Input
Amino acid sequence: MRGRSVITNAQRHVCKAIVFSVDVKDFFPSVSPQIVRSIFEALGFRSEAANLLVQATTWDGQLPQGAPTSSAIANLSMTRVDVRLEGLAVAQGFDYTRYVDDLTFSGPQQLKKFRGLIQRILKEEGFKVNPHKIFTMHSGMRQVVTKIVVNTKLNLAREDRNQIRQNALQNATLPKKIRNDSSLLGQLSWLQSVNPTLGIKVRQLAHVP
Output
């Protein structure tokens, strides 16, 4: 969506005592044709039109990953989850954001008391939590939200910054005709979007515009 990204998602969680994240397991496959039909009906489509739209946007009993319509429909399928979790966050004084199937909460230490309830709400709404992607991160450790470090400011992980800097220096030593500027430019743009000051410095090292 225009104006929203992993960066705006992570920004809400900078400088927090606790960052807690969970991931929905098999997100797209878990959105059934019945759920999709209820979404279109809630948007005002009559039964026949809703059925046609379901046939056009689902495959083999689920939302197909990679289809241009799937992300928007999957996003709508989480409306009840968002309303309940946002209500909980406001009532208890912590922040909640969701980027596709990646849910993040941050705030004071008392947030830890609500980890079980958060997962229970997801299950009540028909979604499964990925047990391998449940993280509780306190301020004394690295806090990462959608691959961005948020402890004191937005930044890339140290090893990622070092790797991009190394790639930039190596690229600058190569003859221009064999440089891989396109790949490096993507890395530099990512770094600069998260950490503008460092991104500009590394871009200058690489001798690329």
